[in-house]
């Protein structure tokens, strides 16, 4: 089968150890991608890009090491695989984590410092509209759930979105994309589209 369609398509993976991976698979599928859950190194090898979902970074960390996925994931990030982390997924991609639990590790790759549960217990979850120049108009309605913020970024990192107080909640660095919030729980899929475009243009 010749033609532009068959020529593309390795599937897009969603790390499915824990968290809201089903929602991401649904969004990516709605956007026309062939989305598959990734739980094993063999599955990771097949994908053209990977989403790391929200959930609990401490658990995701433990499971990825237990299932022998942590090292292959680090290698994939280093090799330039496009990876998009939301919330806990952003924490997994961060080189440095504040308020981590004892022994918590990340995959790293993204030259940022994130603070876990940055909004404290008073304000576990909230929603707000974010101006994201990269995505154009209108502003994006963003849902934060026990979310991290990005407190420091390296030179090669671009802040894509900030809260009114200036705190960074979306970043990009080469093949890596991260958001503190959860576009998969709204109907605004521009971040997923942006990510798919990143995969295509690679
Ligand atoms: N607080 C969680 C963590 O530290 C992240 C929450 C989320 O992914 N919605 O991993």
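Q: What amino acid sequence fits the structure above?
A:
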């Amino acid at each position: 089968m010749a033609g532009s369609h068959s020529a593309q398509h390795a599937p897009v993976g969603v790390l499915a150890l824990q968290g809201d991976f089903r929602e991401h698979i649904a969004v990516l599928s709605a956007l026309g991608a062939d989305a598959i859950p990734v739980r094993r190194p063999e599955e990771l090898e097949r994908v053209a890009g990977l989403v790391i979902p929200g959930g609990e970074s401490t658990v995701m960390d433990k499971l990825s090491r237990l299932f022998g996925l942590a090292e292959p994931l680090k290698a994939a990030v280093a090799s330039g695989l496009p990876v998009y982390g939301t919330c806990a997924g952003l924490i997994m991609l961060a080189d440095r984590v504040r308020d981590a639990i004892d022994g918590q590790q990340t995959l790293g790759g993204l030259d940022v410092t994130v603070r876990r549960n940055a909004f404290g217990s008073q304000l576990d979850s909230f929603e707000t509209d974010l101006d994201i120049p990269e995505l154009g108009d209108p502003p994006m309605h963003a849902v934060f759930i026990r979310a991290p913020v990005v407190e420091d970024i390296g030179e090669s990192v671009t802040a894509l979105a900030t809260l009114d107080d200036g705190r960074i909640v979306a970043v990009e660095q080469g093949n890596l994309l991260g958001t503190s919030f959860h576009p998969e729980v709204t109907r605004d899929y521009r971040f997923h589209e942006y990510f798919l475009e990143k995969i295509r243009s690679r």
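Q: And what stands out in the fold?
A: The first strand starts at residue 12 and ends at 15.
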